[in-house]
Amino acid sequence: MIFGAITNSWRLLLGATDLRELIVDAERRGAAHIELRQTCLGEYETGEGVGWRPVLPRLRSLTGDFPGLTFNLAMVWPCLTKKSDPKGEPFQAALEGAKAVGGSAPHLRVVDSGRFEAPWESTGDIPEEALAVAGLATEAARHGVILSMENSGLPIRSMAMLVEHARARMEPSDAGYLGLCPDPTNQLRSYPYSDPLDELEAVPLDVIKIVHFKQIRDGQPYHSVDTGDLDCMRLLSMLQTRGYSGPAIMEIPPGPRVLDNLESSFAFLQS
Question: How far, CA to CA in Å, does 39 sit from each of 36, 68, 69, 243, 266?
Fold first, then answer.
């Protein structure tokens, strides 16, 4: 497992500090992977919304300066709520961004913030717009890019069901490029009486592409990964036991001591 950080944790620091300096500090504190999140890249991105684009030459230069780190790109994309053109310029630009930073294993994480009335419990509950992610993943596979999805309003079991059925629409050689970014704490906030770790344990290992760690106490965000409403040590142990070897991202809330809190999160999990 590769412990890492995400750049939206540094949102409050980016105005005064270059992203490169923040990555240097994060690596010094123990990060081995950096998730480069849209809107939190400083001079390495341009535009907003559908006009957002990664600045490819700068990103290549940035990530090339850190041979000891791995990177992935993350962006907002309505992969569950709207059909979109896999061949369109915005998605193609995102794939090129993922390839620019991802080395031998490029990875694009897409976040759909859409909300649904209820969890999907059967195939019939999944809207056709969401199943269209098969087309996006097929195009990502053509570029050799892993495509993982996140939605904070749906439980892990619903998202895993979507992957299963979307993969069934893809060529077998491409299906493995589509997976999830589970965030058990998000589920706990939306469904406080659920057990997201039990649901995650039931997800096939090859579906888990990247995992987010964060903590809440009494339902409120906590400043580091530590004890709280989610048993983060159980999450870590379960992933280790199953042989998960991908990135484990500490999603630390923005704040003036965010890098100290990142370091203490690593120390907690390594204890």
Answer: 9, 24, 21, 33, 25
pLDDT at 15: 86
Work out the angle at residue 3's Cα, subtended by the Cα atoms of residues 69 and 178, and round it to the nearest 5 degrees.
Answer: 85
Nearest-angstrom CA–CA distance, 200 and 154: 13
Find the Cα–Cα–Cα–Cα dihedral 167, 169, 172, 176, rounded to 10°.
-20
Count of Cβ atoms closer than 10 Å to residue 206 Cβ: 12
Written as six digits, the tokens of 9 are: 């944790």
**Measured between alpha carbons, how far is 71 from 76 in angstroms, rounded to an integer?**
17
The Cα–Cα gap between 195 and 176 comes to 26
**Token digits of residue 34:** 């950096």
Nearest to 235 by CA among 199, 193, 264, 262: 199
- What does the alpha-carbon distance between residue 68 and residue 5 come to, in Å, rounded to a whole number? 14
Q: The domain that contains 96 carries what CATH number?
A: 3.20.20.150
C-alpha 185/C-alpha 221 separation (Å) is: 10
The answer, yes or no, to whether residue 61 has pLDDT greater than 90, is yes
pLDDT given at position 49: 85
When divided into structural domains, the chain yields a total of: 1
Which tens digit of pLDDT belongs to each residue from 221-230? 999 999 999 9
34-54 average pLDDT score: 95
Q: Using an 8 Å Cβ cutoff, are 244 and 204 in contact?
A: no
Q: What's at 63, amino acid-wise?
A: T
pLDDT reported for residue 182: 97
